[in-house]
Amino acid sequence: MKSKTIFIRILTVVMLIAITALHAGSRESSDNVKALMEASGITSGDISSSEGRKELNLFNVFAMAVGHSNRLIIKKEDINRSEAKKDQAFGAFLPRIYARGQIIYPENNTYTGVKTGLSLNLRQPIMTGLDEISAYKGYKSEILMKKYDLLHSINLLLSDVSGYFYRASSIETDLKSKRHVLSLYSNVLRELERRVALGRSRRSEVLRINSEIYSLQSAIKSSENDLASAMLNLSSLTGIPVNAGLLNSHTFPDPDDPEKNITSIIENRWDVKSAREAVKVAETRLLAAKGLHLPSLYLEGAYMLYTKDKKDRDYYGSIGIDIPIFSGGMVMARIREEESSKKQADVNLAETLRNARNNITDAFQTWKNSREEVEAFRLAHASSENNYNVVLNEFRLNLVTIIDLFNSLTILQNAKQNYENTLLRFSYNRVRVSIEVNGITGKKIGLFRDSMPAESEKKAR
What we know:
- The chain has a single domain (32-96, 135-297, 334-460), classed as Up-down Bundle (Outer membrane efflux proteins (OEP)).
- Helix content is 69%, strand content 10%.
- The chain is built from twelve helices and six strands.
- It has helices spanning 2-36, 44-51, 58-68, 70-91, 131-197, 203-238, 262-267, 270-290, 330-396, 402-436, 445-450, 457-460, and strands at residues 55-57, 96-102, 117-128, 245-247, 296-307, 315-322.
């Protein structure tokens, strides 16, 4: 009777430990998900304040993209799944407790020695090859891998958002430039009509400039359609209104040359960290496959709750071992499969490292080149603007022809478009450098937030 009481107490303690462990695992999963909700660095206040603005800078658009992105939700759910798998792996260490009922026919058989009844059974695995330990270690790496995938997806989202944002801004800037040139053509047209009325210019010159105006109006209409399409694409990605205004300036400081610390920068990239964790996951799965050659060791016990022929001793305990002898080649095939997966993970890591170095170097060099282009196109734009003003004044004095005026106006239009588009490329390239070195999201989001204009220059003045 004393042994029976001890057995019941042990069974109760084991059940309480199992319940407590599972509850702790669930709480840990909840805390991890809550922490990852702010992986981008964007807060609910950033999203709500952005939704109420009529003019949006890149940070506002990115904040709304984070709030509306389904791809990030999917990545978060991947983390939840991995945490659930880790809890399952942890549960493999805990005992299996179950009730077993059976009715034996005929009841008086002597072959099995088993009687009709209901019992409470317990099975505690001690070692099942290497399944438990490898699964637990593997899922810890898998959770980290999914976390890094989420962080990398945030960077990719910012890359997509900035690409669409600056494309729409480029079209919008080009449209403003064309409208400005159209106003210049209109001024020239008025001057020509005045000169025709005085007999100082030919009527054909008025017709020619009208032709230029109609062509420019057609180009403006085409740009308006392109802008509407670009804004629709941006709205689909981020959830912003299609008629929102875009503020495309920024005050990012110049980046440091990444070549000075390229190895550290590469190792801290989210895609590289994810690839390294993928290698660890493949290693643990290979370890589990090799562990299928090992025996399984377990404790087993039962307590009889009901039986017709109840005796004084209605419980038992045992230790068992299962030794694999032949499995039809399944174990060796599983090992080959996991070895192949490990090689794939190694190759993917090497490729990720190579691509990371190339992307970082290319982003910085492209930004550096665009900075030099900005200054060159600024000087070209200033020179073409001065040239147009001089030619316009000389045209009024009959010192040059209408052809000279058209040429100067065309040069001014091209120079203005080139300069403004180069400014936008410079801004995009600066953002791209920060994305490639993980220097703009997460805890570093403050630099991104503070570098964006709060209102248009016109309003600020």
